[in-house]
Amino acid sequence: MRSPSLSPSKQTPEAQGGGGASGGCSSKKAEPMACCSNLGLKRGPWTAEEDELLADYIKREGEGRWRTLPKKAGLLRCGKSCRLRWMNYLRPSVKRGHISPDEEDLILRLHRLLGNRWSLIAGRIPGRTDNEIKNYWNTHLSKKLISQGIDPKTHKPLNPNPSIHDHNKKDSSSEIHQQSLTSTYVPFASCTLGNAMISNGDGSNSHDHQFVGTDHHQQAAVPKKDLMRNNVIDEGMIMSISKDGDDDDMMINCCPDDAFSSFLNSLINDDVFNNQHQDDQDQHLDI
DNA sequence: AAACATCGCAACCGCGGCTTG
DNA sequence: ACAAGCCGCGGTTGCGATGTT
């Protein structure tokens, strides 16, 4: 195995045309073949000089305006490339080195809750980037789960028919995982669910949030798509209270990000609690 | 020592969603 | 209300490093 702290950029002189196939960073249909290759912009590994230019510029001017940043910073890169380099490597807060067991555990639990929402997961793990976590998942954790007989996508046992398992096998890690998986969903059973109108601060409202709370946690507005997309909840769980833009709309004046953050915290804590609770019960049964 | 296989990471691509005019 | 532009995300690729034969 080689050291995880690979040299920053692979520092091959001049771009080797890393990454994928041809084509620029063209975005939507309206956006013409804009950046990178088509405009003679550089691609591939970053040099130390480029890193310095980018870091210096962002220190002076701050992040953002990625589209125009390269030109102003004197870089022959597209904005996307600059943003990626900054976010994943140059940002001072980026932590390097091995993922600790604690972090690994957190990633597993968050992935079980959120699925492949790497940016959301990364947001809960200080100093780690979505790219790093995604890579770590793909190269380590998914294989680890598979070797334990767990489907890394669903976090359920790979064997569709658990009845053929030897029930005396107490050590089955997938069994333990399945228990904790089940416990993860328990909090939602007692959730208060309903559609909520979120004030966007400009007088407009959004219907795309779900009102979620438990007996012991503050109710919070969570982007509905974030919950549904990963089967944290499904359509069937949504109560159809649909009131359109009148004064009866439920207004929640809070930042969805903060709410989602605390919501995740509560889920993670629930997860820990339920796992411990389950362990206690198991020990009790073993006696 | 050389050739081949595998691993791990940085970087790219394309798409969707948000913002702005 | 609509269109165009920009940003951010998740999936994928390419390549150097390392391990194995």
UniProtKB/TrEMBL annotation:
<dbReference type="GO" id="GO:0003677">
    <property type="term" value="F:DNA binding"/>
</dbReference>
<dbReference type="InterPro" id="IPR017930">
    <property type="entry name" value="Myb_dom"/>
</dbReference>
<feature type="compositionally biased region" description="Basic and acidic residues">
    <location>
        <begin position="164"/>
        <end position="174"/>
    </location>
</feature>
<feature type="domain" description="HTH myb-type">
    <location>
        <begin position="38"/>
        <end position="90"/>
    </location>
</feature>
<feature type="domain" description="Myb-like">
    <location>
        <begin position="38"/>
        <end position="90"/>
    </location>
</feature>
<feature type="domain" description="HTH myb-type">
    <location>
        <begin position="91"/>
        <end position="145"/>
    </location>
</feature>
<dbReference type="GO" id="GO:0005634">
    <property type="term" value="C:nucleus"/>
</dbReference>
<dbReference type="InterPro" id="IPR009057">
    <property type="entry name" value="Homeodomain-like_sf"/>
</dbReference>
<dbReference type="InterPro" id="IPR015495">
    <property type="entry name" value="Myb_TF_plants"/>
</dbReference>
<feature type="region of interest" description="Disordered">
    <location>
        <begin position="1"/>
        <end position="29"/>
    </location>
</feature>
<feature type="region of interest" description="Disordered">
    <location>
        <begin position="150"/>
        <end position="178"/>
    </location>
</feature>
<keyword id="KW-0539">Nucleus</keyword>
<dbReference type="Pfam" id="PF00249">
    <property type="entry name" value="Myb_DNA-binding"/>
</dbReference>
<keyword id="KW-0804">Transcription</keyword>
<feature type="compositionally biased region" description="Polar residues">
    <location>
        <begin position="1"/>
        <end position="14"/>
    </location>
</feature>
<protein>
    <submittedName>
        <fullName>Transcription repressor</fullName>
    </submittedName>
</protein>
<dbReference type="InterPro" id="IPR001005">
    <property type="entry name" value="SANT/Myb"/>
</dbReference>
<keyword id="KW-0238">DNA-binding</keyword>
<feature type="domain" description="Myb-like">
    <location>
        <begin position="91"/>
        <end position="141"/>
    </location>
</feature>
<keyword id="KW-0805">Transcription regulation</keyword>
